[in-house]
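Sample 1 of the test manifest.
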Amino acid sequence: MTSLRREDDLCRDGHGAAGWVTSVCGMVMGQAMYRTAGRPGGPLAVSTAGLTKRFGNRTVVDDVALAIPAGSVCGFVGPNGAGKTTTIRMLLGLVRATSGSGTILGGSLTEPATYLHKVGALIESPAFYPQLSGRENLKALARLGRLPLAAVDPVLERSGLLARAGDRYRSYSLGMKQRLGIAAAMLAGPELLILDEPTNGLDPAGIVEMRGLIKSFADDGITVLVSSHLISEIEQICDYVVMIRAGRLVHQGSVADLRGTQQAEFLVAPEHDADRDLLARLLQQAGCTVTPGNAGGLLLVEAPGAGPADLNRLAARNGITVRQLGERTRSLERAFFALTGTKSADVPDGQEMGAIR
Amino acid sequence: MIWAAFASEWTKLRRPTLFLSTFVGLAAAASLFVVLMFSQASPHGGIVTLHQLAQPNGLVIGVARAAMLLGVVAFGIAASQVASEYSLGTLRQLLVRQPRRAVLLAGKMLSVITFLVLALCFAAVVALAVAIVAAHSRGVATSAWFTGTGLGDMFRELGDLALATIGYSVLGMALGQFVRSAVFAVIVGFAWLIAVENIITRIVPSTQQWLPGASILAVASGGAEGVGYGHGLILGTVYLVVAIAAAMAVFLRSDVTA
């Protein structure tokens, strides 16, 4: 990559296809980055060491060492069957770890009673008594946890269910059931909120609502651990991420840092289709990896150490006018596939991009 | 803490469908036995004679004969109350709010037992009222029922029925804990109490005094042929202690994956 000059500020540079270039920074800022993850070395809400769970001969969670900063919104990502739910159940004392240790909010993993009063959880699909109203369901949980019954209506209001709180749970839509699950998780005024696939089964409007709720929890200073197989979903709401695959920890760290490790990738299209092959060759000679795009004469270009201005300059120097030049978002999905050594093509048939299952 | 689990469970038990169906159902079952008893009674024989019904314990004969049916219903309700926590998936919610499993199970058992004993008491009161009406319609003298002996017999029988209800409830909850399916628990329990024990007893009569259902039924009836009251009470208690210990052991050690 000797013929390309690094140039991040196209406006200052004064060259190239002004208005077409979207910087990485701009792309990231366009997304919902709600909070800043806890600083390295800061207090941890959840820490585990060598956490392992075996069912018979099958190891479901294997030597997982979590370090989730207090105050972060942590995405827990992995395909279905990766061990997310089992890990969460171990954190909640529902499943006994085969080996390993851990601390949650200062309490030992082996003594859930020492910390669960500070934890709220929605585990998989919400589960309540169908013949009781939403309010009665929460009252049953409040009585069990020796919480004031006066705490019930405020959490119902916050989750947008107060108007239907007197209706039987079985009459609720899936979105309402999910919101009741969130309300139940909030009942104890938790310091740590664990949400297992909270957007499962929700329609787009419900997903947006759920994002808003999670954002509001984070704004209140609650540490949120949210698991999902939808990386794109996690990407929009989390500032810290834990990636797991086949029961093993793949990566954990801040989302910003993870994105920073991703190599820049650009979409380039010459004004005239006839120039496409020439442009591709020039880019390859400059050390880029070039893949034909799906449509419109686009080229997908991996350009290590280069910026969009460098690509534009190279094209212009060789008499090619660039019609389109943009940078692809450095997505967590790509990071996940890179870290696990898989490609999006490895996703089983029938499953859309943006969702690893 | 047990009180919190107890109060929480009562929030669920109070739901109208369960509450009404249990209380009205048990009352209807006990009353039906009383009506049948009085309608089938004859001066010289049958299930019971009119002379027997006029004795001090005549008031509670019908209710006592309904013990098996009441017990089976109590068993089914108790089993489903525990097993449905698994099938509904609500157990995980409960354990997050009360991670001390022994406390949770103890509170649940106490609340279900009190619920069923109260339902039994309600059923007994209704059935006794029905017995008074039925006695008048059949011309059975009731003066002996309200003597000191008669009232003593009544309270003793109700006490025995309450003990038997506790026994059936605990066995039901223990089975619900083991099989984790309300339907399966009820089927297995009913099959054992109604059919299997009868078959075993017919094949090997001497086993009757060692079977759990027969022991509890003997307590409910104030003693039965082949199983004395004291023997039933002691053996029934042993069965209950073992059932509670086994249910606790399973619950404390098991992973909750439902």
